[in-house]
């Protein structure tokens, strides 16, 4: 009888574990907001990187122009 109870308990928890693995993101509003905030954060970081690269490009172009003049 103890065996049957233990087996039943294991079966009860197994579907919960499988469903958690199959669906890493839930569809709740909190997770939607979290994903949106992450997207905003990474877009901001990308924009900062692009600005730095544009500054470096402008500096390099200025150096090339200075070398062409001499």
Automatic annotation (TrEMBL):
InterPro entries: ATPase_inhibitor_mt. It comes from the Eukaryota. One of its GO terms (cellular component) is mitochondrion. It is found in: Mitochondrion. GO terms for molecular function: ATPase inhibitor activity. Residues 43-70 form a coiled coil. Keywords: Coiled coil, Mitochondrion. Inhibits the enzyme activity of ATPase. Belongs to the ATPase inhibitor family. This is ATPase inhibitor, mitochondrial. The lineage of its organism: Eukaryota, Fungi, Fungi incertae sedis, Mucoromycota, Mortierellomycotina.
